[in-house]
Amino acid sequence: MNKLEGKVAVITGGNSGIGLATAQRFVAEGAYVYITGRRQSELDAAVRQIGKNVTAVQGDVSNLADLDRLYATVQQQHGHIDIVFANAGVGEFVPLGKISEAHFDKIFDINVKGLLFTVQKALPLLRDGSSIILTASSTANKGTEAFSVYSASNAAIRSFARSWILDLKARKIRVNAVSPGPTNTPGSDDLVTTEEERKQFKASAAASVPLGRMGEPDEIAKAVVFLASDDSSFITGIELAIDGGQAQI
Ligand code: NAD
Q1: The complex's ipTM?
Q2: What is this structure's pTM?
Q3: At the fourth CATH level, which superfamily is domain 8-180+217-234?
Q4: Any idea where the Ketoreductase domain is (predicted)?
Q5: Ligand 1 pocket list (CB less than 6 A)
C-alpha cells in the first residue's frame, strides 16, 4: 500500500478493462487519477467504481484538442503530473486482402498517433523523474492472423519506449511498455460479435498461452503499479510481458 502516495496520474482508456483496473490500483496506492475515455456514461460508471481521488475527462486520444482539454484540467487542478499510463487502444480482426484505408487509419490514429500525443502533450506538466507507461501487446512480438494492423501498431509503441528514453534522458523520465497477452476485458469481448464466437475466441486465446488461460485486468494493473512506482526506479525502456508466456513460444 501507499506505493504511489501523493502522485498525480493520467490514464487514457481509464474507464474500462486494463485502464480501469489500473486506476483502481493507483488510487488504492495513494495516487490521484485523471481518467479519459470516449464514452461519458462509462466514465461516470468508472468514477463511481473508483470512488475517490478521480476526475474523468471525456475525450478521444486521436483528437489533439481533446488532449489539450484533458491536460488543461490537470494543470488547473494539480499543476503537474507524476505518471502517464498511455493505455487507450483498439483492435479489429481484418485479414490482409480486406484491409481498408479506414481500418488502417483508425487503428494507427488511436493506437500510435493518440499514444504519441498523449505523451508529448503531457511533457510540460510531467515532473523530472516521472514514469511513463505505454500499453503495447504480446501481438507485437509474434505472427497474428487477421490482426496485422493492430500488431504492427503495437510494435510501433514498443519502439517509442526505446527511443523516448533517449529523448527524455536529461529529465530522468522513465518510459516502459507493458505487453499484455489475451486479457478478459470488454475490449477483447468486442473483437467478436456472437456468444458462440466469443466462446471459441476465449478458448483459443487460452490455448495459445502456456499458462492455459486468459489474463485478468488486475494482473496487468499490478505490473503497471510496479513500473509507476519507485520499486522500478532503475528500470527504463523495457517491455514487460504479462502474457502467461504467450509471446515466448
Ligand atoms: P477496453 O476496450 O476494455 O478498454 C479500452 C479503453 O480505451 C476504453 O476505456 C476506451 O474508452 C478507450 N479508448 C479506445 N479508443 C479511444 C480513443 N480514441 N480515445 C480515448 N479512449 C479510447 O480494452 P482493454 O483490453 O482494457 O485495452 C486496453 C489496452 O490494452 C489497449 O491499448 C489494448 O490494445 C491493449 N491490450 C489489450 C489486450 C486484451 O486482450 N484485452 C491485450 C494486449 C493489449
Answers
A1: 0.99
A2: 0.98
A3: NAD(P)-binding Rossmann-like Domain (3.40.50.720)
A4: 7-181
A5: 12-13, 15-19, 36-38, 60-62, 87-91, 110, 114, 135, 137, 180, 182-183, 185-188
Catalytic residue status for 71: no
How far, in Å, is the centroid of ligand 1 from the Cα of 89?
A: 4
> How does pLDDT run across 104-134, given as a tens digit for each residue?
999 999 999 999 999 999 999 999 999 999 9
C-alpha cell at 231: 520499486
Grid cell 481484418 is found at 94
Instruction: Specify the ligand 1 atom closest to the Cα of 90.
Output: 34
The predicted structure's pLDDT at residue 1: 78
The DSSP result for 88-151, as a single string, is --------TTS--HHHHHHHHIIIIIIHHHHHHTTTTTEEEEEEEEEE--GGGGS--TT-HHHH
